[in-house]
């Protein structure tokens, strides 16, 4: 069998460029100093639901307001996670596990306090009609929630009528659509046309599988999201006042 | 159809495996023999989005695609070709649509065969539509539609029957995003295999009745999901060491088709097919550098090492400078096959195989494990407990970890090594009792995954 030294044939750039700092070291630099808040942030980073609840109980027992803890502890811990993911220090499964722990914590705080703080904004997510491939949509929803957005998840194989009705009812700041197949993504054009007919001119972020920038550029409200991680960035850009043209300039990379 | 598990290897050692030759070649279609001393291109395509509006538009689109491919084949002088039509959902949900497409395609292929003598075959791959908006529905009414689709395309001219079955995916999607190795094992190795045992006996029955070939499956729904989430070297969505553990788990799962009556060629996107070829001796289709039109991978040359069919995965039909997309990619595939066939005729096939393998061997943990020598070792671990679907999947994952932990020449990041160490420890801690693992997993995932319905697996 032929084994050839890899020098000059390939470079594992991920090994070459790897940061010397471990994820734990990087996270430690970002944790809040407050002795009651820090354990909650650490538990979020570790994705340990039980430890999150334990930390919240201790903070509430010490006099912290349960509803305020959502923004002051849970979202702070989650920001450590999303910042490190954006910097390429940690992987997506860490974000997913942290998001699970954060959502458990939010539910606990809501039960304890009886209310919830206002989210940054509302986003409706769906998978195109005829398409049942929904892992991309699940990632988009988790990343949006992890970044403080309220997500209305319509699920998979969602009829166009249902998408339009949800947008009318929820008045979201953004709609997302994912599709794996070239034939199902055609539904996005219909969603676009029906939104425009109804005067609902909101950004419609589309991505996944066979979806590409050229296709999304053919309808007026479409903005191409190449990566799931673009979803919260696009929502942030909308909050910052960027219009459709500006979103396309920023997110259409090809 | 009975289920006959593999408990021995078809090849006595890894070096015996080459491209274009399989221990059990398959005769099919119009004078074609797969794995019988030559390689053949398998061209795959997707209609333009608007073509799916009506049956008539769709049939016209596939007629154009088929004519374009066949004409380019004879214009450049290629001796054989396989066309694969992966159904868009309309074609499986309306079996008469799929049949109309198969008939139209086969009619054109027969004309070219009669006029030019070009050896060819048509593979049809109905979609696995066995689910509704909220849940998998693996054994309900949708199954009947899938089987009817197989029956109708077989009657209408399809020579090779395949599917990309989805059993276990509801657990896998949950597990892979949480680095949950036991969950991936349960999803792919156990639930996936159980569903394939059930489904492939039905498909093999159709193939036997219609006198066509029950070809094979792929773990596209799970192992390819892991591979795509893992992405390139700089992506941070899944450690590549976990992606290759998922792939190793996929081998005993996709093997189940051949234990229930399929005979090959396995489906192109089953990168696990190299392990399956070592175990079964059946011909396999692969894709790599010539499927960059559909997706990127990190083993474009290596995965060609032992192919019998060489595929482009899928390309949307439209125009390019060099013709339509299907013409361009069919030509590229066939030039690769011409090179492999030249190597076979001149006795240089092992040299070319090794050059392909060596050029990607250290590119990634995924390519390292799928190098034919290491893939063969995974196969040996599978057949050691071939009769126990849990143990053989666990063995595959453990052997994958062992090979990576003892690798030479492969550089891995701290992330990849950390994920590997965690996976190794988790696998070490697993029971050796199938029943215990199955019942514990069922309880765990019934509680954690709302869309998991055990009745889909007769549990």
UniProtKB/TrEMBL annotation, chain A:
Residues 120-245 form the B12-binding domain. This is Methanol--cobalamin methyltransferase. One of its GO terms (molecular function) is methionine synthase activity. Pfam families: B12-binding, B12-binding_2. It comes from Methanolobus halotolerans. Residues 27-121 form the B12-binding N-terminal domain. One of its GO terms (biological process) is methylation. Coiled coil: none annotated. Belongs to the methylamine corrinoid protein family. Keywords: Cobalt, Metal-binding, Methyltransferase, Transferase. GO terms for cellular component: cytosol. It comes from the Archaea. CDD domains: corrinoid_protein_B12-BD. NCBIfam families: MtaC_Meth, pyl_corrinoid. PANTHER family: METHIONINE SYNTHASE (PTHR45833:SF1). Gene3D superfamilies: Cobalamin-binding domain, Methionine synthase domain. InterPro entries: Cbl-bd_cap (IPR003759), Cobalamin-bd (IPR006158), Cobalamin-bd_sf (IPR036724), Corrinoid_p (IPR012741), Met_Synthase/Corrinoid (IPR050554), Meth_synthase_dom (IPR036594).
UniProtKB/TrEMBL annotation, chain B:
The keyword Transferase applies. The lineage of its organism: Archaea, Methanobacteriati, Methanobacteriota, Stenosarchaea group, Methanomicrobia. GO terms for biological process: methylation. Keywords: Methyltransferase, Transferase. This is Methanol--corrinoid methyltransferase. GO terms for molecular function: methyltransferase activity. Pfam families: MtaB. The keyword Methyltransferase applies. InterPro entries: MeOH-cob_MeTrfase_bsu. NCBIfam families: MtaB_Meth.
């Amino acid at each position: 069998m032929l084994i050839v030294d890899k020098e000059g044939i390939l470079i594992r750039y991920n090994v070459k460029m790897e940061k010397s700092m471990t994820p734990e070291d990087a996270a430690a630099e970002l944790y809040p100093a407050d002795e009651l808040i820090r354990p909650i942030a650490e538990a979020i980073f570790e994705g340990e639901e039980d430890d999150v609840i334990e930390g919240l109980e201790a903070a509430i027992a010490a006099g912290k307001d349960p509803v305020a803890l959502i923004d002051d502890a849970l979202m702070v811990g989650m920001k450590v996670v999303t910042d490190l993911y954006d910097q390429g220090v940690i992987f997506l499964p860490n974000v997913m596990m942290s998001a699970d722990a954060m959502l458990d914590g939010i539910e606990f705080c809501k039960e304890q306090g009886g209310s919830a703080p206002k989210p940054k904004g509302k986003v409706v997510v769906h998978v195109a009609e005829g398409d049942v491939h929904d892992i991309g949509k699940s990632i988009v929803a988790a990343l949006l929630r992890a970044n403080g957005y309220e997500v209305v998840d319509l699920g998979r194989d969602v009829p166009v009528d249902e998408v339009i009705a949800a947008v009318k009812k929820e008045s979201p700041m953004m709609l997302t659509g994912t599709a794996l197949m070239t034939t199902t993504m055609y539904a996005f054009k219909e969603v676009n046309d029906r939104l425009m007919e109804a005067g609902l001119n909101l950004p419609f972020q589309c991505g996944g599988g066979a979806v590409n920038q050229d296709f999304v550029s053919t309808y007026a409200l479409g903005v191409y999201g190449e990566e799931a991680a673009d979803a919260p960035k696009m929502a942030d850009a909308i909050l910052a006042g960027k219009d459709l043209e500006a979103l396309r300039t920023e997110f259409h990379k090809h | 159809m009975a289920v006959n598990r593999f408990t021995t290897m078809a090849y006595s050692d890894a070096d015996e495996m080459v491209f274009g030759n399989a221990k059990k070649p398959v005769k099919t279609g119009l004078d074609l023999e797969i794995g019988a001393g030559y390689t053949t291109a398998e061209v795959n395509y997707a209609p333009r989005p608007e073509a799916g509006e009506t049956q008539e538009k769709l049939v016209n689109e596939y007629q154009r695609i088929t004519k374009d491919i066949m004409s380019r084949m004879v214009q450049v002088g290629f001796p054989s070709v396989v066309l694969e039509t992966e159904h868009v959902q309309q074609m499986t949900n309306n079996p008469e649509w799929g049949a109309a497409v198969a008939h139209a395609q086969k009619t054109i292929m027969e004309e070219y065969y009669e006029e030019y003598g070009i050896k060819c075959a048509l593979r049809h791959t109905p979609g696995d539509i066995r689910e509704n908006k909220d849940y998998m529905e693996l054994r309900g009414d949708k199954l009947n539609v899938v089987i009817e689709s197989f029956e109708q395309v077989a009657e209408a001219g399809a020579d090779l029957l395949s599917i990309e079955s989805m059993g276990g995916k509801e657990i896998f999607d949950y597990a892979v995003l949480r680095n949950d190795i036991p969950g991936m094992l349960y999803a792919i190795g156990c639930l996936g295999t159980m569903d394939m045992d059930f489904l492939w006996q039905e498909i093999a029955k159709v193939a036997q009745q219609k006198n066509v070939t029950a070809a094979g499956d792929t773990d596209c729904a799970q192992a390819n999901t892991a591979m795509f989430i893992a992405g390139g070297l700089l992506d941070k969505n899944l450690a590549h060491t976990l992606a290759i553990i998922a792939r190793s788990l996929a081998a005993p799962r996709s093997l189940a088709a051949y234990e229930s009556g399929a005979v090959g060629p396995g489906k192109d996107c089953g990168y696990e097919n190299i392990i399956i070829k070592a175990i079964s001796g059946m011909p396999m289709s692969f894709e790599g550098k010539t499927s960059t039109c559909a997706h990127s991978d990190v083993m474009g040359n290596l995965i060609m090492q032992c192919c019998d069919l060489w595929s482009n995965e899928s390309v949307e039909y439209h125009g390019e400078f060099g013709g339509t997309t299907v013409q361009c990619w069919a030509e590229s595939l066939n030039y690769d096959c011409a090179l492999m066939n030249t190597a076979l005729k001149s006795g240089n096939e092992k040299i070319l195989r090794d050059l392909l393998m060596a050029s990607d061997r250290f590119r990634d943990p995924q390519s390292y494990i799928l190098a034919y020598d290491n893939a063969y070792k995974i196969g040996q671990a599978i057949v050691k407990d071939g009769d126990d679907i849990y143990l053989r999947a666990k063995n595959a994952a453990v052997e994958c970890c062992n090979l990576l932990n003892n690798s030479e020449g492969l550089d891995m990041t701290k992330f990849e090594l950390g994920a590997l160490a965690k996976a190794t420890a988790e696998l070490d801690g697993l029971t050796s009792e199938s029943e215990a693992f199955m019942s514990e997993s069922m309880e765990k995932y019934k509680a954690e995954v709302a869309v998991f319905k055990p009745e889909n697996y007769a549990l």
